[in-house]
Amino acid sequence: MHCKFGGTCTLDVAHSKVKAMLDTYHMNIEEEDMESPFITVKDVLEVVHVADSNRQALGRGHIPFNQVFSGIQKTGFDGTVVVECCAPGPNPFEADKGTPSMDWIYKYAE
Hints:
Structural class: alpha/beta
Helix content: 40-55%
């Protein structure tokens, strides 16, 4: 669902419990750029999920996160940001990838 449609639906419902969420992985597929969706839904944005284009950590794919951070700054978003990344390895849905993958996780957590 494009951000414009989701933002419009959220605003049309006009209920305090109905909010919008942006997800950089899906924005990368559906949106023209990574900044304007923040501006479109700024009044109803509650949560942002971040992962790169390959569902891995920021910087491991090709999403221009400078645009994401610019959108966050321009709108003053101070809500929840969820890092929703899969660890590198043969099975992205298997949590335990062994010591080398844990080293990557600790690197990003610092």
